[in-house]
Design brief:
heterodimer, A: 81 residues, mainly alpha, two-stranded antiparallel ribbon, 2 helices, 3 strands, 65% helix, 7% strand, B: 325 residues, Tetracycline Repressor, domain 2, flat
Chain lengths: 81, 325
């Protein structure tokens, strides 16, 4: 974070990168340690996983449905002409 | 493996719920985005496929939410210092900055891709540009550097009705531009009314909002001037026949009340006592009541303007005004 002449704070790209790196979770792949989750953390992770799964399924269904609707429109337009 | 090899009780593992990620998307802003986009889509002179229209609105909502998440990721430092924003998911420590960036970027990409599929490339391009404009131009560049931040940045919030229009017509017309301009002109008096009674919050965070940078008096005058321009411009849809009698009456009555409240703000001493102590959005010191009233009313004003267009175009209530057009 840098201070400008009029005292306002301004973020640099380096600040942003540092902010992301600092907030990153530890790299467990380089360690033999494992993570033991608390029941609360397990429950939260489970809920997040369910929502991610539903979102992915929703996205696939949306792409499929849009494709079908647009194909139908194009076929109908082709028949009409 | 011994127990000592385990990280103590899963440290650094998130307890964020899906609700926390939903909060990252600024649901209140998303509601207004969906509503104004729907108005633009309905007012367009094209019969849209209901499913594709629904998907376009959904993409807009997710795209706006993605921009909100990127904004919260970048502004986590100042959100933590402001009473109004310190309960957001990142300052509370339940979502990390990196996860918020990741969530925002993925949601932005998926929403733009789906928009291209459901409507057209122009609408998808406008959606991508509006996300970029809000997350980068406004959040990363303007917000911390100029008191004109929300004047220029307001363009990001003005895109939804235009995108809704373009999603079904495939082109940017004068009417779409008018809808864009109404929200663009509405943003300064709306945002500055809030900034007047939360100026201490912005000052503490070093954000140069107009009351902090130029003072409360100058801000009150600018609110009044922008309000006059807004209320006059809000009549433009009547001239292009986008709005009929219902819209004209709403614009006239709503605009008169808007001007009255803006005048009261101008005549008040709002913004001179600093911020309200508590963080609630509508918490206010007695001297700032006029600013709080204008802030609250401005949301209602924009809502009824666009609701009038929806009523006229979706429910057959359009009555042309004789001698116009």
């Amino acid at each position: 974070m840098t201070e400008t002449e009029n005292g306002k704070s301004k973020k640099t790209v380096a600040d942003m990168i540092e902010q992301v790196v600092e907030s990153k979770q530890p790299d467990y792949t380089q360690s033999t340690e494992t993570v033991r989750l608390t029941p609360e953390q397990e429950k939260a992770r489970g809920r997040r996983n369910v929502v991610i799964a539903l979102s992915l399924v929703g996205f696939m269904v949306a792409v499929f449905a849009i494709t079908v609707v647009r194909l139908s429109q194009n076929i109908a337009a082709g028949v009409a002409s | 493996m011994t127990p000592s090899n385990h990280r103590a009780e899963g440290e650094a593992v998130s307890t964020a719920s899906p609700r926390d990620y939903f909060d990252l998307m600024k649901p209140r802003v998303m509601t207004l985005v969906v509503f104004t986009a729907f108005a633009g889509l309905i007012a367009a002179p094209v019969d849209a496929d209901p499913f594709l229209a629904f998907m376009s609105i959904l993409c807009l909502a997710v795209g706006a939410g993605a921009a909100g998440a990127l904004n919260m990721a970048y502004d986590a430092d100042i959100d933590a210092t402001m009473q109004r924003t310190r309960k957001r998911p990142i300052p509370r420590g339940v979502v990390s900055v990196a996860n918020a960036y990741g969530f925002g970027v993925v949601a932005a990409i998926l929403s733009v891709l789906l928009m291209a599929l459901a409507s057209n490339y122009l609408a998808a391009g406008l959606l991508a540009f509006s996300i970029f404009f809000y997350a980068v131009i406004y959040t990363m560049i303007l917000k911390r550097s100029t008191p004109q931040n929300i004047v220029i940045g307001g363009a990001a919030g003005a895109f939804p009705p235009m995108i809704g229009w373009v999603a079904v017509t495939g082109e940017i017309s004068l009417d779409a531009f008018i809808l864009f301009m109404i929200i663009f002109l509405w943003t300064p008096p709306h945002s500055w009314a809030l900034a007047l009674y939360k100026s201490g919050d912005y000052a503490a965070a070093n954000v140069p909002m107009m009351p902090v940078a130029k003072g409360a008096g100058s801000t009150r005058l600018q609110i009044l001037l922008y309000s006059i321009v807004l209320v006059i411009f809000a009549g433009a849809p009547v001239l292009t026949e986008l709005g009929g009698a219902v819209y004209a009456a709403t614009s006239l009555g709503g605009g008169a009340l808007f001007l009255l409240l803006a005048w009261r703000v101008y005549r008040s001493r709002a913004g001179e006592a600093g911020s309200a102590e508590e963080g609630a959005l509508y918490a206010v010191r007695s001297g700032d009541k006029a600013a709080r009233d204008l802030f609250a009313y401005s949301i209602g004003y924009l809502t009824v303007l666009f609701a009038a267009l929806i009523v006229e175009h979706a429910f057959g209530a359009y009555v042309a005004i004789p001698g116009v057009g």
